[in-house]
Amino acid sequence: MGTSVIDGGRLLFLVMWLNLVPQTDSCPAKCVCYSEPRPTVACQQQGLFSIPTDIPVRSQRIFLQSNKLTVVKSTSFSSCHNLTVLWLYSNNISYLEAGAFSGLEKLEELDIGDNSNLRTISSSAFQGLTKLHTLHLHRCGLSELPVKVFRGMFSLQYLYLQDNYILTLHEDTFLDLANLTYLYLHNNKIKIVTNNMFRGLINLDRLLLHQNRVIFVQPRAFSDLGKLKSLFLFFNNLTVLTGETMDPLVSLQYLRLNGNQWICDCRARTLWDWFKRFKGSSSELECYVPEFLAGKDLKRLKSEDLEGCVETSQTQTNIFSSKGQSGKFLSTESPFGVSIPRCCLGENDKSSILSGKSRQITNNPLKEKENISKTKYKDHERTKNETQHKQNDGPLGTLSNTNDKSLENLSPDLIDSLESSTASNKKKKKCSKKPKSDNHCIRSRGFALKVMTFLFIPTTWLSLALS
């Protein structure tokens, strides 16, 4: 009887002892496993060609970076339902099997960056990762992202897509990412920032788009970015950015637009006006054209500096060339769609230029003399009226409400269809800051008409043309 009691007591003690001793799982070869602060399997820099098959199921963190892995299979982590951190960066991964991360509902951080052979990702690659808050996809050789690739990732806060070859982003790519705060897209090849590219990013705090090839930002591209505090667009191919485009950025504090080739004429007026209201910190915006403003900061110009215009031919030759830093212009054709900007023209000239018509020259030299006299009178009246209505609108004054709206109708398709320009390299005259005198203009027109008359009319009329 006594012996039975003793044996029973020993058995009970053994059971209690086994329950108190922590259970340990086997650790894969070439890996180090530890339990604190969280169950972790560390296999980095071990020259592994495949993911170990005997990873403990209770693992919460797995470090497999800096190996030679090529494929992530659907079974690689299927038993690791407690996994919260997975590092796979700096490998040779070129393929993610469908369901590679399925079942990892608790995963919070996934780093598969620096896998330059990955290049493409399935639209369902991240399906089910509803708890993921950080995703690294930098330096993966990606040229595009599938439609709805981030669908259902409502917890994502940090998205790293820099140093890829992304040319464009589908509309509503980030629509489900209402909690995203940091979006890194720098050092890609994006050309157009479209109206719906960033739709849904209502809590975005930082947007890095520098060192791309951005040539145009559509008017409503930033409509949902009311909480954005940092915007980097430096070292792109921007020449014009309207104030209306920037208006939704009511929380913006840090703005970098340097390293672009800004056109500082009437097309920059709305941006200049926006900067008067902007209270944050900004880099300089160095003017590229016109020549007399080259190197000056757009923000520090006076209103009268923006009254002139730059001929499109000069813009084509100088700005849209293959020179410059990363993000080069591949064409010399203007993206603005018209040969002469509307704001470069007087009211009497806009209709004829935009309709493709011009003043007809007759073959009657006497009639031409009459036309010249009428033109001189009209030019004099126009100059007089402009002088009377000119506003005193310095940096602290009132801007004119006649802003250029031509860029709002620009189609992104124009950019993709650019062709090499056949324009001459001869330096073209640009619009002067101050108009030349009427007498000078009349003399120039008269001389041109006389030359044309000499070439195209009978010699019997020559004396009339030169009189």
TrEMBL record:
Gene3D superfamilies: Ribonuclease Inhibitor (3.80.10.10)
Predominant location: membrane
Signal sequence segment: 1-26
Places the protein is found: Cell membrane; Cell projection; Membrane raft; Membrane
Region spans: Disordered: 355-439
Molecular-function GO terms, alphabetical: ganglioside GM1 binding; ganglioside GT1b binding
Composition-biased stretches (Basic and acidic residues): 366-392
A GO CC term attached to the entry: membrane raft
SMART domains in UniProt: LRR_TYP (SM00369)
Composition bias type Polar residues, residue spans: 355-365
Residue ranges with Basic residues bias: 425-434
GO biological process: positive regulation of Rho protein signal transduction
SUPFAM superfamilies found in the cross-reference section: L domain-like (SSF52058)
Record has Cell membrane as a keyword: yes
Keywords carried by this UniProt record: Cell membrane, Cell projection, Glycoprotein, Leucine-rich repeat, Lipoprotein, Membrane, Receptor, Repeat, Signal
Pfam families listed in its UniProt record: LRR_8
Protein's membrane topology: Lipid-anchor
Record family assignment: Belongs to the Nogo receptor family.
Protein name in UniProt: Reticulon-4 receptor-like
Gene responsible for this protein: rtn4r
